[in-house]
Structure formats: C-alpha cells, structure tokens
C-alpha cells in the first residue's frame, strides 16, 4: 500500500491516489500516513474525501496529528473537528500542546466547547473522562414512530444509535431501549411500556477499569454514565471499552514485569521516561536482594567446607523463582478476570500444595538422577540428597508465597499485579537459601 | 443477592423470588446460581421467565449447565435451546459429555443441527469455530424499505441486526450496510447504491487471534467470515471478539510465566492438569540452570580465594533477570498489539542500550555506596568495584538479550511471549556470572 502511494505521488497522479485510497479503511490509511515521508503527509491527507479524512485523523498517532493541525488553516481544522465525535476530539486535545489546543477550541462552536471542557474536567482514568456526551435520548411517553423520527433527525452526529436512553425532564435515567427492539415492535407502542428498566450504569467518577469489566461481563454495546443524582451525562461505547480493556491488560503485564505503567506505546516513550519507569523497581529489588547475599555470607563456613554446594545456588534460586511466578501469575490473572476471590484462599492453598509436591518430586528426582549421572557432587549421595530435598521444600514455599501474596494484596486494596515474578523471586530466593543451608548444616557432617 | 434468594427459598415464596430475580441481568443471576446449594439450582432456574432463563443459561459455568441439562425434561431442553443463538449452543455442546450432547441434538430441528455440525467441524481456535451462522443477509437490488421489512421478519433470531450483509445468488459477499445508514437514508434508496463495498472479512480457517486483532484495529461491531471462494458463511460479533481478546491476553500472560496455556479458568483446572501445564517448563529451565552451576564450579578457586564474591551472586542474578524481563515484556506486549515490528530492531537496540547504561550507572553507584557503607567487602574497594562494574555490564547484556529474543522469535514464526522472564533470566544468569568471574579474575590480585 505504501509503495503504491509513493508511486502515485511520484507520478503526481493525485486523482488516481484519491480513488485508490478511498477503497481503504481509515485505520489502514493512518498506518500508511505514518510510513510516508513527512513532507507528503499534508498533500495525501488533503486528497482524502472529507468524512474519510476525519475518520483517518482519529486513527493517527498524536505526533502526526500535531504535524497536520499545525499545517492546517482554521477552515481545515473546523472541517475535521466538525466530523469528529466529541470523545475523539477530547482524546486529541489531551495530547496537543497549548497553542494547538487554543486553535482547536477557537474553531469549535460554544456548545461543543462546553462539552469538551466538561469531559476534560473529569479525573484521568475515570468513566467521565472516556465517555461521549453524544447519545440519543428519548422520553417515555413517545411512540416508537416518534422515536424513529428523532433518531433520523439527530442520529448522524451520535456515536451510536443502537442503544437509546430514556430520561425524564430532569435528565434522570429511567431506562434504555435498543434499536433492535424498536424495529421489532409496532410503531404505535409507547417507549415507556417496552423499555428495559433494569439499567446497569456507572458513575462519572468510577475507575475506567470497572467500565471495561462491565463490558466483559454483560456484553453491552454501550454503557450509560450518570452523575451522583442518577442524571445521564454520557455513554461509553464498546470500541472505547475495548481500548480500555487492552490498556488495563498492558498495565497489568507491565506491573508484573516491575515496570511503572505508562499510557504511551513502547516506541513513543522517550529514553528518559523508559528509564524512569524501570529504575525505581530495579533499585528496590536490588536492595532487597542484599538480604539474600547476607544469608550466603552467614553460611560462608558451610560453603567453604563443601564447595559443591555453591554450584547449585543458581538452579535452586531460578527454579524457586519460576515455580513461584507460575502460581502468582495464575492468581493475578484470575483476580483480574474476577474468576478468583479472596474467600477461595483455602481451595487455592490445597491445590497449590499438591501441585507443588508433585512438581517437587519430579524435579527432585530428575535432579538427583542428573547429579549422580554427571557426578556433580563427586559421587557424594548426601550432598545430592540435600540439594533435592531443598528443591522440594523450595517449590512448596515458592508456590505458597506465589499464590498467597496476590490474594493478600487484593484483600488490603493493593494491586495484585505487583506481586509477580520480580517480587516473588526476591522473597523466594532468600527463603530457599535459608532452607538450603539449614538442611545442609543438619544433614551433612562436613558442613 | 444470594442472601435474599436463600431467604425467599426458605419462605417458599417462589412468586416473590421470580419477581426479585427478574430485575437482574443474566450475568448476575448466573453468578447467583453458582453460589446457592446445588439442590436449589433447578428450582430457581425453573422460576425464571423463559427468555431470561435462556440468557442466564448461556452465562453459567459448564458444570452447572451440565447439572441442569441432566435434570431437564426433553421439553425443557428444547425450550432453552430454541432461545439460544447458535454460536452459544455450540460453545455449550463443546463442554458437555456425549450423552448430554445427544439429548441436545435430539431436541433441535434438522436445519439447526446442520449448522451446529458445520461450526463444530472447524478447527479449534479458527474463525469458523467462533462464528455464528445467524445474520441478516440482503440483496443489492432491494430498497431500504424492503430491507427493513426483512429485518423485521427475521431479526428476532439474529445475534445482531446492526450490520447487514449484501450477498449475490451464490452467497458471495458483495458489501455491507449498517442499520444506522438504513435509518438515515430514504426508504426508496437501493441497497446496492448505498452499501459499503470495501469489506474487511476473515476466512473460516484464519486464527481467532486475527479476528480479535481486526476488532481492536477497526472498531467493528461484527466481522464477516467467508470461505475460500468469498462466500459468506457466518459472522463474529463483538461480544465474542472481546472473549477472544481476553483469552489471548491470558494465554500470553501464562506463556510469559512459563505455563502452557489452557482454556479453563484457574479454579476449574484440575490439580493434575495444573501440574501438567507447569512441570515441563520447570524441568526445562531447571536443566538449563545447570550451566549456570557449571560456571560457578569452574570458578571455584576464585570464590574460595575471595569469599565475599559469592555474597553478591543472588543480587547480580536477580537484577540481571529483572532488567532483562522489563525489556522483553515491553517488546512482547508491543509485538502483540502490533505496535512494534521486526524492522524497528535498530531503534530498539539504540534505546535499550542507553536505558541500560542509565540504569546500570544508577544501580552501580547505589550499590557501591551501599557496599562501602555497610562494609560488605570489609572495606575492599577493588572487590566493590568489580561487583558494580559487573552490574553495569550485566544490565546492558540483560536488556540486549531481553529486547532481542522476542523480536527474533517473532521473525522466525515462534511465539514471542515465551521469551519472557523465565527464559531471559536463565540466559542472563549464566552470562552475568561469566562476566562477574572474568572481571574478578582480571581485576583482583587475590583471585
């Protein structure tokens, strides 16, 4: 697609390029625009039919949006902004420098400006900040025919028309009705008689994570957002909910890898910011690992007496860390998807204990065989036994710590995702070495 | 909600309970049914109004579905099945034992049975296996009025009516049209003139992961599924796409933690299955860690000569592992969201190198200060310098390995998600110890 576009540009066949691009989806054109040289960006964008241009603009990266907005005349800004849904406008404004924002706001009418400001005022990550104020509202004494008339009149500017919201004079949310129901009912029916009254809504200040959870759980196409007096102020549509779901997943994954989450993609995050998101955790975990070092120091004599023992330290630490991460990550994910609750803790302990013993026995046996086969302890059965026994105990401890910490974190209101590999590994390392040296001291005569 | 239900049951106030439950969403009633004693399950389920009952049935866990199906009469099975969308029926059938499946199929009509069998025949994880065959199709010479008439006639059984598909006599997909467009156009318009002809579709055999990606990228409500002659055979709706997206995320997260992914939730996975999903990776990684042990053994003399060195092994290994995971997980997630491509490798190397040096310098300096402050090397500056220099080099290596392996995996068609913490840690452990002992041997006179 990029190649063809560059060819059209080279031949200065703008009419042909316009026709060629019209056959593509806005998301694909946005990718194309990120791949052509910046000096052609404005030319190509201006070739697009008005509606396609606006739809493409929404899909573009903020760097390229900013580049275009700076190149645009006021008239062009107005043309693009008029075509956008209000929540998309707000998303764009949030990424732009102040002078660009001023030009955007100067080219929107006062009603739109008021709505933009309303959404901008909600805290980051709240339901209010991701909603749109453009929805279809109906009154309960309307007929279906009147409802269709209203949808036809106002529908073109609404992000979705498929769920319509029934409100009273004070904008209190009374119910909702889908276009499917409207289409399958007689034109004379009264909205109040056929609307769905058990409406699930979120409040403007609720975390957007809960918005995503509602969509996953109930399979809605849109979710109403109300203020604390149950007045309807906006809706969140499913396309935005999917973005939220993916962002929450990315956040959880980053936390699991000891990275402070960021809104930006990897490629768009600057070097200093990337560093800043990673260094605090590395520092914290490095200092925690000091305790593990202390344990080794305090068993210096044991290590000096039986030098073979130290060769198994990495294997014990790694296996403990891996076994612990498996348990913790399973629990973290289950908690995120609401499949696990704190009260399941006894069932979880039971399961992890048996799984740990099974894993421990297999790994212990495999390891014993390997040690004897390769003569890693110089044929010393007792040392091999110490290593394998430690392995079993380490895995049990690791699985226990791994499954318990995320549950406890959730219980006390912390984010369970932080209790993943790095944290668990640090704790399990220290515990496994303590076990190792204690077992060695107890069982080996030369230590 | 559970408490109230149990109270109604105790008072045998079934009418009251029916009314009480009617106000809830099916997803919430399904959760309730999983929390009440099994002997009340059939009673409560039978109280639900027919449509709500079917909607609730879809949301229930397969264990409870099986329990109910076994308690149902043939008439009841038929009643529930008649209300279900075909893709939901298929999902249920896939989880049921053979005798229950036979009873379900015996109570569906032959056309439905044929469609069920068609979907069941597609490979697991293919687009065909998650599609529904119930959609609205239109002809291109229809008027909008005729289209509405058809929607009104057939719409009630269709999972979505909001996107209608235009096909020719041989069922080739010609275009699509949304109900929004239909509602906002004159009743006399001809479908062929107003339909969208640039249709993005997937083929029946494509991986369902790509289905999820299409929804994330384009923001569709439904996606058409075609056979290899572009004949429309089904559609995937967005609610099922969200499930796919969440499953793919769970799979990636499990792979990152060295767990073989499973379709089941943590609580529903048996002990032996849980063990079986975890043990191969633990075994593989344990054996890989042997090499790390070998490195320690081969530098036995160095360790014996300067016993302080061994105290820093856990810290070096952990920090290297953490630094590597941060890089690998960032890249894996970027690849999964299509934000990163292989050709970005040079930019990524550049960024990770600078970030690694910045992290290394801060951690090295902090560590040096800590060692001297706590006298961990007994005031020996040279050993402290060796540890800190190793730390810097380890972090650079870790970030390099961490960002490169997922990219290479993707390049050669492997799943990048496997190249996360456990794998990276094992490799980085070995490399960091090699660096450590080599630097120590070169810089310290007593080693």
Describe the SSE topology.
2 copies of one chain form a homodimer.
Chain A: H1 2-10, H2 14-22, H3 26-35, H4 38-47, H5 50-59, H6 62-71, H7 74-83, H8 86-95, H9 98-106, H10 110-121, H11 127-130, E1 137-138, H12 144-154, E2 163-167, E3 173-178, H13 179-183, H14 191-194, E4 202-203, H15 208-218, E5 222-226, E6 232-237, H16 238-256, H17 271-298, H18 300-305, H19 308-311, H20 313-336, H21 345-374, H22 381-411, H23 421-443
Parallel strand pairs in A: 1-2, 4-5
Antiparallel strand pairs in A: 2-3, 5-6
Question: Outline of this structure?
Answer:
Two copies of one chain form a homodimer. Chain A contains 23 helices and six strands. Chain A is mainly alpha-helical and 447 residues long.
What this model shows, in words?
The structure is a homodimer of 447-residue chains. By secondary structure, chain A is mostly helical. Chain A folds into 3 domains: 129 residues, MgtE N-terminal fold (Alpha Horseshoe), CATH 1.25.60.10; 112 residues, CBS-domain; 173 residues, Orthogonal Bundle (Tetracycline Repressor, domain 2). Helices cover 67% and strands 6% of the residues of chain A. The first copy, chain A, has 23 helices and 6 strands. In chain A, the strands form 2 sheets. In chain A, strands 1-2-3 form a 3-stranded mixed β-sheet. A 3-stranded mixed β-sheet of chain A has the order 4-5-6. The interface between A and B is large, with 108 and 108 residues.
